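Re: folding output
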Amino acid sequence: MRKILVSSFLLALIFILQVLGLLRGTNERIDTLLPSPNPGVLTILTALGGNLFFFAFVFFAIYLDVKKHGKLSKETLVFLLSAFLGLVIVGILKVALNEPRPRGYGGFSFPSGHAFRGGIIATYSSNRWKRFRIIAWTYAISVALTRLLLHVHWFSDVLFSLLLAPWIYNVVKVTQGTWLHLYRKIVRKLGISFLDIKL
């Protein structure tokens, strides 16, 4: 619970500073200081935070559970719900805040969808495969760095997203006692037993 409170405070602080425009100077300084390397390799690396890689990872996680248990594990269900909720929040914030990207790159900037997807994969992987925690977070931070080096996101965009992912994951995990029964009831009623969970 302490983790959630600390994360909540940090997220609220970054969000308020972002909305008030108080991070603009810091964001611009960081963007100016960062080099503009050849985008070839960076484009490949940043794709690891894109939708194609994300959905491939989702199907891989579901496949592993269904193959082993015939159902989802609680950990994978928490991941799926957290990812869905997080991507909805990211989308809403992008449209609501309408923050322009650095250097005239099109679309909205805050928060970073790539960094969120990297963060949620890292959070889930750290919980499911604990010995790969360092690799998982190296992956997530690397995706976030590619967004900065490609100059398509500000520092606050990726920082917020990297904090948002574990926060949502922990909130969903802690509150599963309130929603898990309803989820299982819906899954049974729809007859999709492979999406039920292994208790």
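--- second protein (sequence, then structure) ---
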Amino acid sequence: DDVPSALHELVLSRTRGAPLRPVVRIRSTRAVRRLLDAEGGVLAELSLDEVRAHATAAGGGRAEWGELEVELAEGVHAGLLDTVEKKLRKKGIVRADSPSKLARALRDTGVGDAGVRRPPAGVVAASSGSYVLSYLREQVGVLVDLDPAVRRELPDAVHRMRVTCRRLRGCLRSYRSVLDRRVTDPVAAELRWLAGELGAARDQEVLRERIGASLDGLPDELVLGPVAARLRVWDVSRDEDVRSRTRKALDSPRHLRLLDALDALVRHPPLRSGAGRKPARTMARAVLKEYGRLAGRMDLALAQPSGRSRETELHEARKAAKKLRYAAEVARPALGKPVARLGKQAKAVQQLLGEHQDAVVAQDTLRRLAVAAHAAGESAFTWGVLHGRERAGAEARQRELPGVWRAASDPALRAPLEH
């Protein structure tokens, strides 16, 4: 049978355009029984499935098993499930060890048996290279898994995919002593492209929620004119464009080539001499180097007078804090609590600067909305109120910054990594 195009799209990050073919067939026969109370009311529905599965390839395996599903009737207390489970356990019926019939069919017929994953050739156990590649492998898996979630427009999926791109980029950038940048730099550039294509959708999501929540919090007497209606029109007019941009990026050959390149990078890593060294030397040095970059950015930002120049430098400092945080993430399994503490402080700096940047971006958007309202003959008063609140919020974050940076730049945090 033909596979629906919608399903093709949801598995594209795994198939990369390769044709789909059946690998296992499942036949399930169901018998339904109802659990009744003393008055004959339905408490729950019990479905007994007799399942048969066989692999479609020649010589493929077969499997048979039974499953019992219990679904409570509407309004029935969830505690009844515990009672039913206890009764079933006494009869020797235990919880399934697979999340679905398909998962069990793939496992029991041998179709889903990928064998034991071995590290790439040349990677020494407990070396810097082994930790870096383990992190990369994990994040590549996350990126592939998030592809269908973004296509389905699930909550927070775009943000998570964008963060995953940054984590991968940060790892490739920070650990150039482990992996040859002649190979990794082009991959990092493509990750930057993908994050940029996702950025418009994420920025729109943040602005929609931020401005909407701020507007909802205003007293009625401060809301003059069709403010909510204009906000909705602005959102709808932009939303389809940014969603289309995201879909085009994920459907593009460029995206699929990036996924192939990431797979190749993990399977055949371009190792350098640092890959075989102990983490206490190579990875600690990489983390401290990112700290030095952040410190330089913070010094420059804090030396700027208030205004656009400082806002620009604070944004650059925020990006440097992210890079330090992600470098620490990679090293945490190897270096433990010392690098985890430094990463935690980098995250605090990043989050504060992120709140500041969100307020700066919101001010620009609110000004444009105010101009559009004025041009349409509407009152711009409420937009001005919201703009003032965002400006005050940005100034408050700047006042908090020296204290947060003081904690993050404490030499005691770095001392264990310097020895």
